[in-house]
Amino acid sequence: MPQVEIRDLRVAYGKAKILEGVSMDVEPRELVSVIGPNGAGKTTLLRAISRVAEAQGSISFEGARVDHLSPVEVVKRGIIHCPERRRLFPDLSVQGNLEMGAFLRQDKEEVQKDMERMFILFPILKERRTQDARTLSGGEQQMLAIARSLMSQPKLLMLDEPSMGLAVLVKKFLAETIQEIRQNGVTILLVEQDTDLAFSVADRVYVLEHGQVALQGVPGDLVKNPYIKEIYLGIA
What we know:
The structure is a single chain. The protein is of the alpha/beta class and about 240 residues long. The chain contains ten helices and ten strands. The strands form two sheets. A six-stranded mixed β-sheet has the order 6-7-8-3-9-10, sandwiched between helices. A four-stranded antiparallel β-sheet has the order 2-1-4-5, with helices on one face. Strand 1 (about 5-15) and strand 2 (about 15-25) form a beta hairpin. Helix 3 runs parallel beside helix 6 (about 140-150). The protein is globular and about 45 Å long.
C-alpha cells in the first residue's frame, strides 16, 4: 500500500486554479521528485499536503485521510515540510533552530541524540552551533533547514527547492545527504527546479504542468522522452 495517496487534488486562490485534479502515490521509503516550470503548482502541492493550503480532493497517509487535519496534527503524524527559502529563525542559534524542530517532542534524551546525529550528518553545523542562523551562508542555512526538519522525526520529509541558489559543490553534498536520509528509512517528496539533481536522486519523477500531472515514470525512462530531453534537460 502506498504511504501517500493523493486523489483529484484541487487548489484555487480566488479564481486562479493552481492544482487541477492531481493524483499521485508515494511508496514507503521511496524518493519521489516533482519537477515542472514556475507556476506549475509544485510548492502548492506540498502546502496542500501539509495543510497550509486549503484543498479539495483526498490526501491519505499510511491508510488514513489527513486532508481534514490541522497543520499541527499533520506534523504529529510524521509529515514534515521543509519549505522554500528555508524559513529559519534568523536570530536563534543553530542549536536553537534545531531545538525548535523538536518542539512537539517529549523524549528529551532522544532529542539530544538526534541533535548529535544532525552534527554528524552536517559537520559544519557543529562548528556553527552557537552562531545565529542569519550569519550562516546560503548552503549552511539550507543544511540547517533540513536538519531542523529531521529533528521532528519525519516519516515523510517534503523538501521544497533545497538546491535553490546554491553552488555546484553544495548541491552535490545535499544530493548525497538526501539519498542518505532516504536510506535511513525516511520517505522523501522532493520539489526541485534543478532537473539534473531531481533525476539523479529519484526513484520516480512526476512532471507537473499547468496544475496537472503531465508525465510520470522512473528517471531512466523519462530521460529518453524527447519532450523531457528538450524542455527540462536542455538536450536537443
